[in-house]
Structure formats: C-alpha cells, structure tokens
C-alpha cells in the first residue's frame, strides 16, 4: 500500500501571496534587526525573538506589542483568523541558508490557528503524520515515511494553518540550501513557481502571529488592582 494513501489532504490552509508590500517587508526587517541584541535567543539551528509575553501552561504574562507588530496582528485578525479575537503574540524566527526547525507541534497554549508572514526569502514547510500508538508496535516509522506534503511560502506571503494542519500534523523546515519543487508541494499553483524549479534559500525571517487565550496582567500577579 502506498504509505500516504489513507491520509487526507489538509483541510484548512490559506496561502495569500503578497500579503504585504515590498516597502512593508523592508520596514519589518529593519525593525527586527533594530531590536537590542538581548532580544534574540540563539538556538542551534536558528535564532528567535519573542514578543507579547512568554506563553506558559497557566497563562501568559502579557506584554504590550510594539506598534510595528500590532499593525500586522490587527490586519491578520481582521481576516477572521482568530475567531474574532486579536492576535497578541508574535514569534520572530531567523533562518540562515542551511538552517531549519525540527518537526514539531506547536502545543495547546495557543488558539489553534497559526499565521506566518515570511520576509527576505522563501522556505519549504514540511508536514508529517504523527506516530500513532498502534504503529509503535510495528515497523518503526521514519521521518520519511511520515512525510505528507510541503507548502512553499514566498517572501511577503501570509500562511494561515488551522484545524488538523495545526492540531494533528507536525511541521518542520529542513536545513538545506536549495529546494526542489516537486508535486509534493501542495500549494505550488498559488505561488506562481513552476513545478520542477529549484529555489536557492536566502536568509528568511518569519513572523509567527498567534492568539494566546489566557493572559494574566502584571498588576494582578503583584496583588494590586
Ligand atoms: O518559520 C516558520 O515558518 C515556522 C516557525 C515555527 O514552526 C514555530 O516557531 O513554531
Ligand atoms: Fe511551529
């Protein structure tokens, strides 16, 4: 049996090319790189900035978003991406060519919609089936056999993932320098890139814009009104 035969196509993916203009893209990049060095967290294969507070199981100690991010939180929320709520959290990730992120789930702390603006370069976001309990007894599932499809995100685009794409599947980015665009890229038609093309990665900065439902106010934590 073909290993992917019983998997459904993703139910809720919206890909919006040119969601922001080239001017807005360079302004956003300027703001990201203007942030103090201490705002960056260096990980082994990327670095990141966290804005809006640190999401924790008991809630997020909310911090005011700067205007340059609030603008996009509001623009994305106005599309109805967060069921009437306004996004209050932004993760900025920077990937140099060859960098990526291991397949993972984003977890339960967020409203189950993730929206991503890409800046500076494209990337290929790969999606994987989770390992099911019954399969654990059988043949070990390799990353390759669990791979389902990829989405190409080009600079200035907005990607919105909801439902199973967010809650059931894992997503990751391979640490490569070149991406070959095969039939496994599910949104190729929407990107204007021809099948068979190879794209070379530059430095990509992504803004992952989300809504964290449980927010604590600092003054409540300090016991003041
Ligand atoms: O850079 C991206 O588009 C994905 C980032 C991501 O998956 C995350 O930060 O959880
Ligand atoms: Fe993620």
From TrEMBL:
One of its GO terms (cellular component) is nucleus. Residues 86-213 form the Fe2OG dioxygenase domain. GO terms for molecular function: dioxygenase activity; metal ion binding. It is found in: Nucleus. Pfam families: 2OG-FeII_Oxy_2. Its cofactor is Fe(2+). Keywords: Dioxygenase, Iron, Metal-binding, Nucleus, Oxidoreductase. InterPro entries: AlkB-like, AlkB-like_sf, ALKBH6, Oxoglu/Fe-dep_dioxygenase_dom. The keyword Nucleotide-binding does not apply. The keyword GTP-binding does not apply. Belongs to the alkB family. This is Fe2OG dioxygenase domain-containing protein. It comes from Oncorhynchus tshawytscha. The lineage of its organism: Eukaryota, Metazoa, Chordata, Craniata, Vertebrata. The gene is ALKBH6.
């Amino acid at each position: 049996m073909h290993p992917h035969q019983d998997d459904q196509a993703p139910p809720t993916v919206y890909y919006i090319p040119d969601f922001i203009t080239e001017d807005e893209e360079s302004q956003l990049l300027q703001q990201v790189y203007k942030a103090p060095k201490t705002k960056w967290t260096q990980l082994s294969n990327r670095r990141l900035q966290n804005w809006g507070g640190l999401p924790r199981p008991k809630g997020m100690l909310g911090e005011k978003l700067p205007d340059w991010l609030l603008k996009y939180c509001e623009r994305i929320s106005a599309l109805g991406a967060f069921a009437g709520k306004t996004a209050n959290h932004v993760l900025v990730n920077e990937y140099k060519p060859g960098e990526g992120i291991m397949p993972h789930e984003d977890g339960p702390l967020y409203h189950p919609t993730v929206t991503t603006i890409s800046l500076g370069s494209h990337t290929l976001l790969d999606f994987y089936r989770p390992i099911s309990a019954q399969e654990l007894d059988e043949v070990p599932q390799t990353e390759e056999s669990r791979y389902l499809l990829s989405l190409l995100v080009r600079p200035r685009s907005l990607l919105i993932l909801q439902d199973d794409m967010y809650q059931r599947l894992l997503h990751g980015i391979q640490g490569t320098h070149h991406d070959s665009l095969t039939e496994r890229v599910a949104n190729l038609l929407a990107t204007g890139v021809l099948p068979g093309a190879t794209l070379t990665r530059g430095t990509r900065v992504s803004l992952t814009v989300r809504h964290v439902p449980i927010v604590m106010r600092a003054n409540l934590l300090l016991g003041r009104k």
